[in-house]
């Protein structure tokens, strides 16, 4: 039954906006199937003036960056699937988050100060790449493909206003964003290299209508920020060897971010039956720490074969502290310690052997992938648990695929992945099949792939009991079953010495069944309603895209349009939808070299009106009413101008971020009436038009 789906791939599959064919021979790439991947090149990333991965993805179609103005951090939502359905890799190793059982990775904590490229797979990942990523797979490649001999170093300073707010203060009354970067590398003739990179990002918070951290002698409800301040420090160390078909490296990365949420309201203290002569407020401090250790060995083996082995160990934690603050001088009046709310530690390993059976005709790939994670969650209202969780889960997968390249230009690539979860000893068989056709001017790929997601610790072991309800996990949950159908066509319109012009069409379909959601159970206690995680919902998306890319010796241009239809959301079943709800998006990238060492880059994105359903139930009634909501259209645009001096050792960049002054986007009911929004989210697209300056020096 599965392979019959191939017959309908022409009319249903997944959109791949602004994607162009890119062959990848890197030992840490993710291109193991016929589908092309999108690559954000180093020059484009520099032209965007990005410091972290979240900033690099702002203009990608069908992605939403879920920013948290209060506690900080950025999560990825792709095709309206939350971050549990996408994976972020660093040099091929999946990254764990610091909270919510490791599934939510903070994209703003991933620095890009020494990155060669960012790979984005919005199509099938192939059986060799991680289970569960029905949304996206994003791989940040930091290993230089070509090493420069000798010693090199760089220093960079980045200054940015937050909307109209900026000053050079460092603590009291500080405004703006201040980033410092430093890097050092040494490469020898024998292939040894070592790199050290540091980044400090001080986001001083967005004040808006509030008073920031100014001293407040009397009563106020305007203390604090609309976007809380945070300071992050990221460091990476890499030691490696690359020569004659052998690559080996060890990498250690650390991300340490601290955020403070200032209480907006202060009150006059009342102690022992009397009002005191000072006012106080409660501030909450968060500390997020993540560490990754990664060892990789990649080598050529007998008869043009390739072998790759990865082993990684990572830890993550979220700690929280509530402080009693005297607002007249911001003095801390208590001595509460930081309390650990979440913790995760995990081992990961992957091995792959790729071997040509018939040269240029038949290739075979076989490998394994395994991980073990232990998760701790404190019993606290902040974690939505009233019983501590300290459990571990193990996964193991083996996979194999064959690629047969026919002389007529056709390719066939079947594959199979066997995925095992250790909690209830469940094994899934996940097949994949790709068909390709390539000539000098065009490339057509059709893919069908099964992608399942195993339940996590939260869904299996949660216990949250309140006076009125009780929510429990379910260790008998089945894996969520995903299906990808993809069709992609690339055509070369023109190819000349200094000019290329390509176009692409893409169409795709995603389906998810047995989606895990919270289900009400039969009530056995008169005052408390029971709920449990269950395999309950279905989800579907259908998207189509067209893109055009041109390159010349002095310029580069990309334009894409996507139409995405959705059935189902985080809280609703696709069966509750009467049709696909469509919205459109558009993205434009333009880069031009004005003179020998001057460049100008524009990034633009348009997001059309997004419809969504919410469901409300009148108290005392069993009837559920469907309410149509929609968000207004919005625009994002950045414009940057850069140049180099002193033999391209000194770099200068001036830019404007968020030209359209876009801020928070809210969903509103189409009938103009007031309804409960339920789980509908706010889209925090930005904090206003900002201005930035970057100065870098390379030795």
Automatic annotation (TrEMBL):
Q: Domain TonB-dependent receptor plug, which positions?
A: 34-135
Signal sequence extent: 1-21
The molecular function GO annotations come to: siderophore uptake transmembrane transporter activity
UniProt keywords, alphabetically: Receptor, Signal
- What are the GO BP annotations of this UniProt entry? siderophore transmembrane transport
Pfam families the UniProt entry points to:
Plug (PF07715)
Query: Which is one Gene Ontology cellular component term of this protein?
Result: cell outer membrane
Entry's InterPro entries? Plug_dom, Plug_dom_sf, TonB-dep_rcpt-like
Reading the lineage from the top rank, the first entry is Bacteria
Name of the featured protein: TonB-dependent receptor plug domain-containing protein
Give the organism the record lists.
Sphingobacterium humi
